[in-house]
Amino acid sequence: MTVARSAEFVNAVIKAYDVRGVVGEQIDGDFVRDVGASFARLMRGEGAHRVVIGHDMRESSPALAAAFAEGVRAQGLDVVHIGLASTDQLYFASGSLSCPGAMFTASHNPARYNGIKLCRANALPVGQDTGLTEIRAELVAGVPEYAGPRGTESTVDLLPDYARFLHELVPLDKIRPLTVAVDAGNGMGGYTVPAVLGTLSKLTVVPLYFELDGSFPNHEANPLDPKNLVDLQRLVVESGADIGLAFDGDADRCFVVDEKGAPVSPSAVTALVAERELAKEPGATIIHNLITSRAVPQLVAELGGTAVRTRVGHSFIKQEMATTGAVFGGEHSAHYYFRAFWGADSGMLAALHVLAALGERDRSMSELAATYGRFASSGEINSTVADAAGRTAAVLDAFADRAASVDRLDGVTVHLPEDAWFNLRASNTEPLLRLNVEARTSADVDALVTEILSIVRS
Question: What is the pTM of this model?
Fold first, then answer.
């Protein structure tokens, strides 16, 4: 039996979708060893015999991955190490090896953090309702010992296979030559981009911050924050690149910048990829979360596909992907999910689709993106509040006479006349209210944002 821990401590680290915390304070070798043991018990009970483990470039990641492996082996399961990897590379390993996986990363969080993203065989999700609750309970009570033999340990390099698999899904051998500026943010894109994009003859890659450095010396590896795109925007213009790509810390998300240095919304990327997938499979289902632009379901319907709206979060998207057999799913946060990639998300695969769409046409990235931009949007705006429920209720009261409808699929989404809507969601982990607004014009968006924030922040 492992050491029991307080429920308060465990609940603070094991989140709704993954394990994440401050190294040395919340996350250490002993803790992740026990997480590994509990995960292995869960997977052994489902018939698994081995677990594949990858890690990012953070200083703490190799030792934590090794400790997790000890916990797995102590429960009788074998371990396959793939070493440095992006999160979608770990999903590829889980799918191609047909075994559960664990990725050590804190994604875009600062250097002092680390964490674990877990999946079942074939990259199926492990979330709060699909395993993390059981793991949490065992860490509080203590993980039972296993009386059988310890598992073995081996190492394999899957980076070439990962690159080859992506190239087969989206060939770029017949596109026009493109110059691509890429900001890896000192994250795992600096490892995977050379293998995937750097080997293609039609692409000239202009690299920025490719040095693997988990201290993130240049900027946070979170392209969702506009300030972290500034260096890439400048590089695109100065280098005359056709397009810019920015990856987050574990390189599972990809953001796009056009040739003028202007960001391309993830909703436009979702619409672009959806169009490509529907051309290959007419009538297919496309998943989008409720923050994604209305342009996405409109386009899907126009092309004869079926659009399915979901809550925000990878576990919900992946569940809907599996339930509906959807060919593709997209989120406003630049997570893109593919049936051909075991229903998991891959920023690199989304990037290949965008490059293919651009390279197959004699149009600039800004012209291409404009074809998918039907509405103006605010992006996600966070407000620190002490009473999220009370502030949300106040906003609903203020819009009671104007709302065409209100739904509570995730937070509250208020649908207004003239194709306008807004969503307010409380964060699961912080005292924040997240606001997203969409309307016909930027002026309409600005007016709604001003009105709503005056209530939320009062």
Answer: 0.94
